[in-house]
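All the exercises in this workshop are built on plain-text protein records. An example says more than a description, so a record of this kind follows:
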Amino acid sequence: MIWRRLVLSLVVLMSGAVPASAAGARERCLAESQIDVDMRISACNAFLEIAEVPEEDQGVAFANRGRAYLDKQNYGLALDDYDHANSLRPDDAAVLQGRCRVRAVLKRDLDAALADCNRALELEPNAAHVLGSRALVYLRLDLAETALADYSAALAAEPKNAEYLYGRGVAKLRNGDPEGGKDDIAAARAINPRIADEFAKLEHDESAWSFAAMLEYWRAVMKFLY
């Protein structure tokens, strides 16, 4: 029995075949379609532990897991993954936009965040999701007028996006236009009644990490080290 297993393992290695479980993890991790974020994270964890994963696949895996961590508001883990992804895929607009957004939320390295979004816009001109992320950076930099311009540009492409409407409302309030700000915020709430709470999470204070987020971060770090 031992010899049969050994021979089978050698055949798999020599043929380049991937075990079914590894193939499943790869498929779920690298899939372009939307899947459950916890499933994505679990699959990417398993996939990245496989020996000799091609660099191209590694870059996509880190980017996809980073996006999943961003969706779960585990911003420290998301930033780590986007840094890894960027080292492997330096001209990937989605990676640059994701890292820009995470840095904006954490209020960390905002000049670098701005550079990430600017580069992403060079690669994808007028992309609404990048403009929305850059607008958030400008809000964090207290540049309300510039944030207002970016949110307006993003809304030209996605006029029913509650986040951009609410963000523009905040920018208008800070820029001395209370009526316009209230109108945008009201329009955003009509689209998404929870937008105020959701937007508040984007103005995250790095010192106020939840215990659960911190615990997951250190678990991931220790797993990586050991």
Notes: Residues 22-29+36-90 form one domain. The longest helix spans residues 55-71.
